[in-house]
Design brief:
The structure is a homodimer of 334-residue chains. In chain A, 45% of the residues lie in helices and 16% in strands. The first copy, chain A, has 334 residues and is an alpha/beta fold. Strand 2 (93-98) of chain A pairs antiparallel with strand 2 (93-98) of chain B. Chain A binds a DNA duplex (30 and 30 nucleotides) through residues 3, 5-7, 15-19, 21-22, 25, 27-31, 34, 49-59.
Chain lengths: 334, 334
Amino acid sequence: MAEVTLKDVARASGCSVATVSRVLAGTRPVGAETARTVREAAERLGYRPNHVARALRRRATGTVGLVLPQITNPFFPALVQELEHALHAAGRAVLLADCDDDPATEAARIAEFLDRQVDALLLIPVDERRSREAVADAARRVPVVLLDRGCGPGVADSVAVDNAAGMQLVLDHLAAAGRRRPWFVGAAGTTTTAAERRAAYEAGAAALDPEAPGRVELGDFSVAWGRAAVDRIWPSRPDAVVCANDLIAVGALQRLRQLGADVPGEVAVTGFDDVPLAGLADPALTTVRQPVTELAAEAARLLAERSADGGPSDGAGPSRAIRLAPQLLVRASG
Amino acid sequence: MAEVTLKDVARASGCSVATVSRVLAGTRPVGAETARTVREAAERLGYRPNHVARALRRRATGTVGLVLPQITNPFFPALVQELEHALHAAGRAVLLADCDDDPATEAARIAEFLDRQVDALLLIPVDERRSREAVADAARRVPVVLLDRGCGPGVADSVAVDNAAGMQLVLDHLAAAGRRRPWFVGAAGTTTTAAERRAAYEAGAAALDPEAPGRVELGDFSVAWGRAAVDRIWPSRPDAVVCANDLIAVGALQRLRQLGADVPGEVAVTGFDDVPLAGLADPALTTVRQPVTELAAEAARLLAERSADGGPSDGAGPSRAIRLAPQLLVRASG
DNA sequence: ATGCGATGGGAAATCGTTCTCCGATGTGTC
DNA sequence: GACACATCGGAGAACGATTTCCCATCGCAT
């Protein structure tokens, strides 16, 4: 019942630990007869390799650290699920850290994971600027892949949705629907998602109305802000409220209904991300779907490549920034 | 830049690895002067202890496996967040596994975590019966704490909300509001949450109407089922729809609105769990809040106790089942 | 017969800590 | 002054795997 070790299997099968290791790991050919004996003994004793000892010797834990801003952000659970599956399929276990949207905590958790000898890190940086130093440090030690949000150019490999393209999809759709007085409700933070979506709006909205790029309100990525923003912009009667993410859009939708506005007749509301909540809102939210599965798959692939290249960014080529195409989901809200 | 080890620090500070280990781990008193020198050298070289080697020697990884049915279930992210924080505060890292609501996958992930030498397991079992064997096996090897859902009596320590008390809160509230024709929309699965909530409804509903305990529809814990269930029960015009969780309730709410029902005037709708979605529904959902923070804290506490007692359930006393008091949140839906 | 390469197997070093012995040096007491 | 005793430090054995040497054996060609 205690721990069965290689030594036990060796004793039971009458050969050396070296041989047993070779048979079980298949690292070198071993005589057929011996192999059979060893495998039998291992089976009979219920031998299970000790990953800790293996990690110490191989200098690889088979473990990846996943550090994210806040698991309660409804966009993340689906991403975490896909990542967990993709990494598990690659034989790696996932250490999870939630850093409460705080860059200092984030830096601490990254450092802890490095101390725990993770083979690689998957990061969703809290902030583009304030996360950079910790991320860059980490990238010097192990392969790092940034997800969903960036962290300045060249710091590490990254995978994200093409936010600009997504926003353009929204604007094109609104234009085709004849909307001409959009407002943008975004986030003031310095995450790349906030910045990119806002920049794309400002760049693309002029096609609808020369003055549209100026009609921008910035708060944070929350339902509460969506509600509050509506109170500020509704007096100027927009015919579309373009939100930087679904949470904001849901808040906007709620407040507009309270104010008796007709959505989508009078005003369209759009979101971004396609969180589960979006399809449940009333009216269901027109939004931009992020390719979550592909995001996770690409991240896992990048990680595998970097790991194969033998460690940190120094060995392999320059860092790559992968952008995946978003998809517009037209629903009832606009 | 490579790895600084105890040996390096020993060399640099002119003493033995044993002494360095003692100074840094504080495991035995060491002369003040020596200690200073060692600490200085460690600092100067940027020494970081290798957790893998430590784990091998100490036979403890400082790691806890968290296995849950589906992270995308909206009740779990908040729980995961609290658990992660509580465990981190106790100096333990969290290995995460999502098992796609499949008992076989669950068993496999548990086994993998044991191979990885986790010190303990935190499990939200997929199913009361079909998870039992794997859970019981695991509990024989390391401390196990079951969360939110149970797995049969005596299998392992468990922490959950008092589902019966929660359901009774709902029924009392409905009774006080004069509702007399409730229907229950629950889940047919064999999770303890499904079973306990349903049993509590059947036990308590008779106080509202002798025939109420029979008015029960069972499906699964999903929005879609909530919608479908309304189509089946609306013809008999209940004045309250008691749902086994918030997802069902949100679906019910949606469908009732589509059918032109007046909520809460004509019919009340209640949920269970208080997921973020509940407060965002329209009308906002009356529901039972689970004490998520306390749940996580208790789980962490149990784990710490069991671990202190030195290993699996055999050493310490019988398994404990902790039930926390729920709280009724009366909102607009009933 | 000798040499040579291939093949299968074992002994032992190694990974970086922790921890158990042991020995050496005081310190206090009778 | 001697003996018990605490205190501090070092040497070295674990922990459980992997991996590098090295040796023995065998087949085969010279």
